[in-house]
Amino acid sequence: MRPAHPPHHDAARRRLLRGLVAAVAAIGLATPAMAEGPWQRLEAARSVLGDAEPATQGLVLDLPHVSEDGASVSLTVGFDGELAEDDYISRIDLFATANPSPEIATFHLTPLSGKPEISTRVRLNETQQVIAIATSHQGERFATAREVRITVSGCLMRNGGDLPEPLSNPRVSVPPRFSPGQPEAVRTLINHPMETGLREALTARSCRGISSNVSPSA
To answer: Tens digit of pLDDT for each residue in 168-187?
Structure first.
C-alpha cells in the first residue's frame, strides 16, 4: 500500500494549483487581444494592419458621443504613447465602419510635423464605430475605436437642394512666428463639394449598401 499523504500536503498542493491558475489567467488578461477590436472585422482596416497586432494604448481618438448632424462631426486623433528615440508616427488612417466607403482619411507625417495630433470634421452615415490606426516609421502599429451615435445621416444629399459650389476661397492660418523645436498649429478652412450620389428616398433615409466616396472636411 502507498502511504497516504498528510492533510497539510494536500492543502499545500491545492494552494499551488490555485496560484498557477491565477497566474495563467493574469497572463491571458495582460496579453493584448486583437480579435475584439472592430479593426479586425473591417477589411479596409485589416489591409493597413497586415499581419501586425496593434497596441491598443497610446493612440487617442476624440469624438462626440452623439452628433445631431452626421454631415459635420468633429474629430481629433493624436498619439501620446512611447516610441523609440529615433522613431515617429508616420501615418494615421481613419475608418468609419458603416459608411458606404469606410476609408475616411489618411494623414502622412514626418519628424517635422511635431506633435502627431490632427483635428478635422468628417461625414458619418449612421451610428457606428470610428477606427483610427497609427503606423510608426519603424513599423509599429496602434489602433483604437470610438462609437458615435448619429441622428441625421451625413451621406445623403437633400432632395431639391442646390448643386455643390465649386472649390473656392480656401483659407490657411499660420502663426506669426515659430519657436525652434516647438510645434505650432496651422489651421485650414476649405469649402468643397461633398456630392456622394446618394439621395433621400420618400420612405427611408438609409444609404446602406450604396457605394460612394466620403471625404473629410478640414
So the answer is: 677 888 888 888 888 888 88
